[in-house]
Each structure stands twice: as structure tokens, then as C-alpha cells.
Amino acid sequence: MRQRSLIAITAALSAGALTLTACGSRDSDDKGSDSGGTTVTIGVDAPLTGDLSALGLGIKNSVDLAAKTANKQKYVDGVTFKVIAKDDQAQPSAGQQNATALVADKSVLGVVGPLNSSVAESMQKVFDDAKLVEISPANTNPALTQGTDWATSKKRTYTSYFRTATTDAIQGPFAAQYVFNDAKKKKVFVIDDKKTYGAGLASTFTAEFKKLGGAIAGTQHINPDSKDFSAVATQVKNSGADVVYYGGEYPQAGPLSKQIKAAGAKIPVVGGDGIFDPTFIKLAGTDATGDLATSVGAPVEQLPSAKEFVANYKAAGYKEEYAAYGGYSYDSAWAIIEAVKKVVDDNDGKLPDDARAKVTAAVQNVSFDGVTGKVSFDEYGDATNKQLTVYAVENGAWKAVKSGTYTG
Predict the structure, then answer these.
(1) Torsion of CA 253, 256, 261, 266, to 10 degrees
(2) Which DSSP string corresponds to 130-182?
(3) Strand, coil or helix: what is 387?
(4) Do residues 171 and 150 make contact, with C-beta atoms less than 8 angstroms apart?
(5) For the chain, N or C: smaller number of CB within 10 Å?
(6) What residues contact 152, with CB distance under 8 A and at least 6 apart?
(7) What 3-state DSSP class applies to 61?
(8) Is the torsion defined by CA of 254, 255, 260, 261 positive or negative?
(9) Under a CB-based contact definition with an 8 Å cutoff, are residues 303 and 372 in contact?
């Protein structure tokens, strides 16, 4: 399976720590010195500090594992992969600065990230102008690949942008179908954090829920910089809703769930992959039992294709969990590695002068069996793997309750 060939590398990965190197400009003919061949850098952009760092560090570590695996296998003859990780703190302005810095380093031939769709919006043009491929393991806003009018007329804007996660055009309706058909909830109060990801997800959920015959008891927006949601919690209580759908991320979703229950509305809070993290449960408290989240793909721990990834991640000794996007991050990095291999093989074992453009073109056609299943991309740069899973909070942990694909 290409990167599936993780066999017998656990001892070599026992050190496990990612070595960060300064992000400086490098001449395009610099061949590196790690093994007497060419050094290719894979950039990572994610929130490595702050409220969402649990997800960002899992992304960084999983990319590091892919690079170490490729080096151990000598997967691309004459090429040594290294990783430069940059912290965007989930802020678009920081992401754009990171993108500019990564473009300036000529050894960077691909970037994995970011986590947040709003950050991706600030980075796409920077990377596209430089013909530098970017693969997100986590972005789900449909407009990133299909244009702002994606619902009526899909148009790809940036040919250098790809993702291994499926989109909210699927995730929101998938959640609505579960809530209405399986959970038997018919009256929803919809809340979002006004950000690109959260508002978009809430919108696609709402449209499908109404289409199914569900009622919208109310809608509200919250300030993502706040932790006091008592006013909206009271509105939820007074609305008579039997479920809440929240478009946003776990730092706000956890306290929101807790305060809704405290206000007397003992109803489940449902969200997308942005709340699917153990931290949500810690923030929501003991009343979180029954809350729901959708996340991209099937549970990594249950996939036969992911067994070696899980084992080797653990053996590598990373301090942080691979979290919700670890498998997708590994697959994103491996797609870049596969593309580099293709470009090198097609150029008599050397990187061409226009390596970035050729790697971007090669990513479009990669196809391999990855940690998360079959990895390939459609004409928009979206993942062809459309699977999703619903998780419920049970006994203080997330438990998968249903996997499948949206049937619209």
C-alpha cells in the first residue's frame, strides 16, 4: 500500500520527536546534505498553540511520521524528506504569513494544512501563485474547492489546493439525516460562531433538516471569543427545541453545551468534526452524555488499513494524540511524497527546475491505499472518500454509533 509499508520501523521511530528547522530561503539547486542527495521539505501549518492545539499537534506529528517512514524506506531514491511546522494559532492573518514564509523556502515542495477553513481562505492564493501544492486534512468548507457559488455552479478556483477530508456539503446533511431519522429529533435550535467553517456547516445542516420535515425552533450566533453563553442558553430553553445544532469548534461548544443544560434544556448538542475531540467532553462536563458529533471518515482505530499507523504513532513516542485528523494528515503528507516520487522518476531520478508545478500536477493523479482508505482526488481537488461517522458521548468518551455516506 505504499505508505502502508510501515512494517518494522517502530524501533527506528522510537525517538519520535519532530525536529524543527528554521524556515529560510534556499536556492532551487540546493541538494541538501542529509544523505548526500536532495532534501525536500514538507511544510505544516496548523494551530500548534492555543485552544485548538490538540488537533494541530496531531496533524504535525502525523506528517512527521510520514516523512520519517519515507526516509526509512528510502521511498524516493536520493531524496530525504524533512518537515517544517508553523503555528497559525487558528488565525487567518498568521496563516497567510506562514504561507508566505513557506513559499520563500525553495526546498518546500508541498504543505499539509491548515486545520481551519477560514485560515485556508487566507493561504490559498499565496500557494497557488507559487504553484505550491497544499493538502488540508481537515478543511470542510465546500467553497475552498468548488467556489463561492458551489451550491448552484461549482468552479475550482485554485488548482494547487486539495483536501483529504470530505466537505460540509456532505457533513451537514449527513448529520441532519441522523438527527431526524435516527435520533428522532424534529425541532432544532441552530447556533453558529459566524466563522467560515461554523456558519457554512450550520447552513448545510439546516437546509437538509428542513427538507426532511424538521422545524427550526430558532437561530443564533455567538461570539467565539466569549465563554458566557447564558443568554443564548435561555433562548434555547424557551424555544422548546428538542436538539441543538452548533456550527463551530470545541472551545466554545463545550461551555455552550454545559450552559444549555444548566439553563434547564436537557437536550443533546450536535456538532461537526470541529467539536469531535476529548476536550469538548471535559469542557461540557458530566451532562455531555448524549451529545453528538460527526467526523470525516471511519474511526481510525477500527480501520484495518490504519493498524500500522496507530501502532507506529504510539511507538514513535509523540507526546500528543494523533487526534481527529492524524490519519488524514499522514495521508496528505503521503500524497505529496507520492507526487515527489512520480516527478523524480519521470526526470531520470532528479528534481526538475519546475518541481513545484510538476508536484502539484502529480498530486491530482495520485491514488493509493492510505491510512483512511483509498486516497485520490476528484476534479475539484476534493477527496473521493466521502465516508462520515456519527459519535455520541457515552461514559465520558466519544463512541462511534453510525458510519456511512450521505445519500441526498
Answers:
(1) -50
(2) TT--EEESS---THHHH-TTTTTS-----TTEEESS--HHHHHHHHHHIIIII
(3) coil
(4) no
(5) C
(6) none
(7) helix
(8) positive
(9) yes
Higher pLDDT, 296 or 138: 138
What Cα–Cα distance (Å) separates residue 22 from each residue in 43, 50, 160, 224?
Answer: 12, 22, 24, 32
Greatest CA separation for the chain: 69
Q: Which three cell numbers stand for residue 349?
A: 531520478
Output the nine-digit C-alpha cell for 261: 443544560
Contact 59, 48 (CB under 8 A): no
- Which H helix or E strand runs over 206? helix 196-212
Q: Tell me the C-alpha distance between 197 and 248, whole Å.
A: 7
Q: Cell for 37? A: 542527495
| Entry pTM | 0.85
**Residue count (the chain):** 408
Name residue 311's amino acid. Answer: A
Q: Which three cell numbers stand for residue 354?
A: 519546475
Task: State the sign of the Cα–Cα–Cα–Cα dihedral 275, 279, 280, 281.
Answer: positive
Q: Give yes or no for a contact between 252 and 224, defined as CB atoms under 8 angstroms apart.
A: yes
Distance CA 58, CA 55 (A): 5
